[in-house]
Design brief:
The protein is α/β, with parallel strands linked by helices and about 350 residues long. The chain has two domains: about 60 residues, DNA polymerase, domain 1; about 280 residues, Alpha-Beta Barrel (TIM Barrel). Helices cover about 35% and strands about 20% of the residues. The strands form three sheets. A ten-stranded mixed beta sheet has the order 3-4-5-6-9-10-11-12-13-14, sandwiched between helices. Helix 11 links the parallel strand 13 and strand 14. Helix 6 runs parallel beside helix 9. Bound molecules: iron/sulfur cluster. Iron/sulfur cluster (SF4) binds next to loops. Belongs to the radical SAM superfamily. RlmN family.
Amino acid sequence: MVDLKNMTIDELEKFFVDIGETKYRAKQVFQWIYRGVTNFEEMTDLKIELRKKLNSIAYISSLKIAQKLVSDADETAKYLFLLDDENIVEGVAIKYSYGNTSCISTQVGCNMKCSFCASGIGGKVRNLKASEMVDEVLIMDNDYGKISNIVLMGSGEPFDNYEEVMKFIKIVNNPFGMGVGIRHITISTCGIVPKIYDFANEGLGVNLSISLHAPTDDLRTQLMPINKVYPIKDLIKACKYYIDKTHRRVTFEYSLIKDVNDNYEMSVKLSKLLRGLLCHVNLIPINYVDEIGYKKADNEKIIAFKNTLEKNGITCTVRRELGSDINAACGQLRRKYLAGRVK
Ligand code: SF4
């Protein structure tokens, strides 16, 4: 049995031609899938014989909501999705003035072991299929409200699941499906340098965000072990290549952790590192994670850090704190849910 949700429109066209049908059927079925239909019987513009044929050779996969929490403070909704193999992944839906954003996971767990992140604690279990990532968005679209922006910033390193992530982008961007604009999709990476070059060469126009979190190799390696493999110099070089190739700015994510990377010296070093680069810095007051113990930087430190960057000509924003009452930091809710499930 083949899962039609895991196909781009081109793959679906080939599928229908291979089973002796016209290409046009692909467009019809694609549209049904992205209206949330998972049963061929409901696809009333298909001949009954074709519906029967599809029932015998294909299916349309669908995740289930295992848990949903909505923040009283800001309406941010956190979802736990149950996969076919009983694994659990997280997604978050966030309301902004410019529309709803869904933050999705790309892997079950993560191998990158960033020291501030709950998703890396248990390591990677497996990659998500494109259809599973699509379904995270589709379910939030149906349940939370129209999703107009997607960020791949949940559990998992997107560039460690490169092929499926590229397929996911093609599917959600297709106008016959969800039609999410390419400029409304953002991939966040911890810095897998060779994949940044590959991604630049795709010429897609998707936004690139880099989890930087430290301006020196010593500190970044402590926070993010990937830095041992791809140090800052190589990472910045790859970002320059991406900017030259796409003419698009890169966003650098910098989580401000109390007494770790929030001091004046770090803000000056970060300014020097990024000076002259077409970029934007997103300063993130870190969410507290029980098992890790890092604390959010004090508000005065956050403001001072931002001021130093701006004085040095680096544009930056402080990310609004969202869903702190519902464990909205990456991997937190999943870990709590799994701990409860084994009791
Ligand atoms: S921050 Fe991202 S890359 Fe790092 S461990 Fe967490 S999910 Fe993985």
